[in-house]
Write a structure and sequence with these properties.
The chain is of the alpha/beta class and 236 residues long. It is built from five helices and eight strands.
Length: 236
């Protein structure tokens, strides 16, 4: 595994890379390598619906196929509980930066970098709540991949995330495609069409603009594109 160990700052200008979706394994040489006493930490940021979870799952599988020990920790595990959002009147902006425990997330990353064994929460999208202590991160793993919308935000407690990442990638996707995916996701998880559209084109889009403004703090801006169909004769 190649790369540079140690915490990096924001790049002066992030590198840009267009890559077919089927060639995610080609990204492996770009992941940071393990430090002497702790795993490397790779952060994948991007707007809601950009495909961060899919990219992460594919990258984890590719890394494991190469014999690397990898753990996955999602920022979404630090969603505030639905009960608390109801009490605070924040259910209609669920997913906004203020509806996460950003300080708790930063603390988790610091513990990982300190070489501790940690038990991270996992967000259950269907239930709409995080599950505490659901993901074990062994300090012996080579790489921890963490993904979420707000890894590169420079405001508030979120500002502490970037310094805990050995490398940060920003995933981009065409807005129309991203919004269509978000709408389908909201419908699949039980929202009626009107409320699903309100989230996809309202709150989610507001959050996407905030995320886009943090793009320059990444090391790499990644644009995945569908693989070209195989060439051949056109048949009936």
């Amino acid at each position: 595994m190649t790369g540079v160990s140690g915490v990096t700052g924001a790049s002066a200008s992030p590198a840009l890379l267009d890559l077919p979706e089927g060639e995610v394994a080609a990204l492996l040489p770009r992941v940071p390598r393990r430090g002497a006493a702790h795993p490397a930490v790779l952060g994948i940021a991007g707007a809601p619906g950009a495909g961060k979870s899919t990219l992460t799952a594919t990258l984890v599988a590719a890394a494991r196929a190469e014999g690397l020990r990898v753990a996955e920790v999602g920022m979404d595990g630090y969603h505030l509980a639905q009960e608390l959002l109801i009490a605070r009147g924040q259910t209609e902006i669920k997913g906004a930066p203020a509806t996460f425990d950003a300080a708790g997330y930063v603390h988790l990353l610091r513990r990982i970098r300190a070489g501790e064994r940690v038990y991270a929460p996992r967000y259950e999208r269907g239930a709409g709540n995080p599950i505490a202590n659901a993901v074990e991160v062994d300090p012996a793993v080579d790489l921890v991949i963490t993904e979420g919308n707000y890894l590169l935000l420079p405001e508030g407690a979120w500002a502490g995330v970037r310094g805990e990442l050995d490398a940060a990638w920003f995933l981009e996707l065409a807005s129309q495609v991203r919004q269509e995916r978000l709408l389908a996701r909201h419908l699949a998880h039980g929202k009626d069409p009107e409320r699903a559209r309100a989230f996809a084109y309202g709150s989610d889009e507001h959050n996407a603009r905030a995320v886009a403004a943090s793009r320059e703090r990444a090391d790499l801006v990644l644009r995945l594109r569908p693989a070209a169909p195989p060439s051949g004769r056109m048949g009936a």
